[in-house]
Design goal:
Length: 539
């Protein structure tokens, strides 16, 4: 089959792929987006579990590049639910007339750089071939599901679901015995709703997490109109804040306040809801004393809410708050006061195997009708490494990154030896520590500007320099090592997969605002740290 020719191939039709398509098409390039699903949405197409919501205030969880597009949409709730976010992304695709350039139900299986033609050759599971100058990943940080290799998973005769690949139709838990493995964000959001239907719900928990109540509520017409009127303020936050979103902060360390003042402020944040526990004191992720104040406040709240003392203690997190993803939920701790809800610590009583009628533990077993795997994702690198991506001389990305254990990028955007390959919110960028639409807009804008430069100057290829990769990795590590992040095993470090940390920290924790300045400076300096080849390379 003859390969189809494009200027750019983009993988994924979520937030990243849709905006990248729009920008490059506006530039006059011939672009094709390849998407595995049969519709747009990315993560929000697949994650349809009960209670699925964004954890940024919905007024920030949208594009801001177009004021007209922004003002045509109204969010119904403070934290938009999955169906509404998916509806929004379909609205974007329709408003910008993007669908004709998206090919659905097509999974990219291989992409290889041809040294002779200086083009990427892309293969798919539909046996189609594509050729493009630019190869751009919009696969996302949290899109490849992870189910630990439990012995006997396939022997279970009941229903099995992963929160990241939920059925499109409603799952009925009425009268069923349900085991939920994992209590990250998806488990925290889903369990209170499942518990209302199930005859029994048992959480098998490895690590208890800090959970703040969302205090979600419908948005009135007045609140919706007010949000729309603040377009400039919302867009400014995308560019000038560490997380791409404005949140309540005292602007001072907790150590500058009396215990009474600390409690008063934290009570306000708790009642207001949302992620402000991570921003109320700007040094919460770097100062152990401040961190202790906030983390102990949450542990005390757990004791207040959960009636059974032993259960409350089992739910106490013992790591530094904010060094794992801070989770927001609704009635999560209250759920444990229900007679039909139980929790088992897997550190004290680990899973031995899955059996036909349930889960066998080291000490006893649990019979169930349904197993829900809320076990997260092969985050940051997993989706990229599931594709056979090969750079110069056929070098596999999987080999260069040592199966994801040693990540090497420049700015989280480019990889040495992989010319004209760009990653949107890739590893070693701020990505998951930000409001994702903010990070995506910044990345796409930078890639678009870079491609404009290449096209205007007839440059054939651009790729990261090896020394720039080393310097960037060191910079990511140096910033992370000034914080409390490295003290905690988490999916930020890959430890959710097999307990083994990656070499180095694969997220830039210096803030999206600072990261943007660094990226812009690189572009302003004619792409310092990159190697450019072509007839009219500017020196």
């Amino acid at each position: 089959m003859e390969a189809k020719q494009y200027d750019a191939i983009v993988i994924g039709a979520g937030f990243a792929g849709l905006y990248m398509l729009y920008k490059l098409r506006e530039r006059g390039l011939n672009v094709k987006v390849l998407e595995t699903a049969d519709g747009v949405g990315g993560t929000w197409y697949w994650s349809r579990y009960p209670g699925a919501r964004c954890d940024s205030d919905s007024i920030y969880y949208n594009f801001t590049f177009s004021e007209d597009l922004y003002k045509k949409w109204r969010w119904k709730e403070r934290y938009a639910a999955q169906p509404e976010i998916l509806e929004y992304l379909n609205f974007v695709a329709d408003e910008l007339e993007l669908r004709p350039d998206i090919q659905f139900e097509t999974r990219v299986t291989k992409a290889a750089f041809n040294e002779g033609s200086k083009l990427w050759e892309i293969e798919t599971d539909t046996d189609e071939k594509f050729v493009a100058k630019y190869f751009i990943s919009g696969v996302g940080c949290l899109s490849t599901t992870n189910i630990p290799p439990f012995e006997g998973v396939d022997t279970f005769k009941g229903e099995k679901y992963h929160t990241g690949r939920w059925p499109h139709e409603k799952v009925d838990f009425t009268g069923k015995r349900v085991v939920v493995i994992g209590n990250g964000s998806s488990g925290v959001q889903a369990m209170p709703l499942i518990a209302k239907e199930a005859s029994e719900l048992t959480l098998l928990m490895r690590t208890p997490h800090y959970v703040a109540d969302a205090r979600n509520h419908p948005l009135t017409k007045e609140q919706q109109d007010e949000a729309i009127s603040k377009y400039e303020e919302i867009r400014d936050a995308f560019f000038t804040t560490p997380g791409g979103i404005r949140m309540f902060t005292t602007g001072k360390s907790a150590t500058e306040f009396t215990p009474e003042e600390q409690k008063q402020t934290l009570e306000y944040v708790w009642e207001t809801g949302g992620l402000a526990l991570g921003s109320v004191y700007p040094d919460v992720a770097v100062n152990k004393d401040t961190n202790l104040v906030v983390s102990q406040f949450v542990r005390d709240k757990i004791d207040e809410i959960v009636e059974n003392e032993a259960t409350a203690k089992a739910l106490h997190p013992d790591y530094y708050i904010s060094t794992k993803r801070l989770i927001i939920g609704t009635n999560y701790y209250e759920m444990f006061n229900r007679d039909n809800v139980n929790v088992v610590s897997l550190k004290e009583n680990p899973i031995v195997r899955i059996v036909e009628n349930g889960v066998e533990l080291q000490n006893g077993s649990i019979e169930c009708d349904v197993i829900v795997f809320a076990t997260g994702y092969d985050s940051m690198t997993g989706s990229l490494l599931r594709i056979d991506i090969r750079g110069r001389d056929g070098q596999p990305l999987k080999e260069k990154w040592e199966e994801g254990k040693v990540v090497k990028t420049y700015l989280g955007l480019s990889v040495q030896n992989f010319p004209n390959f760009f990653m949107i919110t890739g590893p070693q960028s701020p990505s998951v520590l930000t409001n994702m639409p903010s990070a995506i807009e910044q990345h796409v804008d930078w890639i678009d500007r870079c491609i404009e430069y290449l096209e205007e100057n007839n440059i054939q290829t651009i790729e990261a320099q090896e020394e720039a990769e080393k310097t960037w990795a060191q910079q990511c590590d140096d910033i992370a090592n000034q914080t409390l992040f490295p003290y905690t095993n988490s999916w930020y470090t890959g430890a959710n997969l097999d307990g083994t940390k990656r070499s180095g920290f694969v997220i830039f924790v210096g803030g999206l605002d600072n990261y943007r300045k660094i990226c812009d400076q690189v572009a302003d300096e004619s792409y310092n740290g990159f190697t450019l080849t072509g007839a009219e390379v500017l020196n």
